Amino acid sequence: MSLTAAQLAAFIDHTLLKPDVSLAQIEQLCAEACEHQFFSVCVNGSWVAAARSFLEDTDVKVASVVGFPLGAMSGDVKRYETEVAIDDGAHEIDVVLNLARLKAGDDKYVFRELCDVVEAADERTVKVILETCLLTDAEKIRACKLVVESGAHFVKTSTGFSTAGATVADVKLMRETVGPQFGVKASGGVRDAQTALAMIAAGATRLGTSSGIAIVQGLAGGGSY
Questions:
Q1: In whole angstroms, how far apart are CA 101 and each of 38, 121, 154?
Q2: Which residues are annotated as catalytic?
C-alpha cells in the first residue's frame, strides 16, 4: 500500500475525549485538524458547538460521541443526546452500542436503539462503536449485521477507554461481515504510521486517534508507504 501523508490524513478523525479538556485544547485540536487536513475532529457533546465555531468555513467535519464511553444508558437518552449534538452542529455521530443487551441476546433492543439514533441523526453519518475487546467473534458478527440493518454508516472497533483497542484481526472480521462498501473505523491504540497503514490494509476506511499528528509526520518522514 502506498499513501502520502496527505492521503493518510484524510482517513483521520482527530480525537480528544478526555474528561478534563479545556476550551483552549478544543481550539488547538481544531487548529491542528485544519493544518494537517484531517477528516474531522471527534469531541464530547458539550464541545460540539465550540468545535463547529472554530471550524467554520473549513472542510473539517465535527463528530460527536454519544452514549460514551459505556453505552449502557437508556436508548431514549442516546436519541436525545444525538438530537442535541446535531442541533449544535455535529456532522457525524459516534454512538456506543449497548454491549450488555447484545451479550444477553436482546438483538431487538439493540436494533431499535440504533434505528432511533440513525433517525435522530437526520441523515448525518452514524458510526457505531462495538468495543470489540469485550465481545466474542460471534458477537462482533451479530453486532455488525445489526448496525448494517439499522441504516448506520460505520462499524467502529473501540472507545479507547476499555481494556484494549483496535486489532487488525477485528478490522478484517468487521470488513468481511459488513461487505466492501460499508464504513469501518479503527479506533483505540492507533498511534503510529505503521499501525495506521496496517488498519487501512485490513479494511479500515477511517481511523480514530489522538496521535494523528505523529502518524502523518511519521509517514512524511519516510515518504509514502
A1: 34, 22, 20
A2: 94, 156, 185
Pick the CATH number of 5-221 from 3.30.365.10, 3.50.30.20, 3.20.20.70, 3.30.70.360: 3.20.20.70
The amino acid at 144:
C
Domain residue ranges in the chain: 5-221
In order of 4, 160, 192, 224, the CA distances from 217 in angstroms are 10, 22, 9, 11
> Tens digit of pLDDT for each residue in 152-172?
999 999 999 999 999 999 999
107 to each of 53, 96, 111, 130, how far by Cα in Å? 38, 15, 6, 14
Do residues 41 and 55 make contact, with C-beta atoms less than 8 angstroms apart? yes
Q: Is the pTM of this model over 0.90?
A: yes
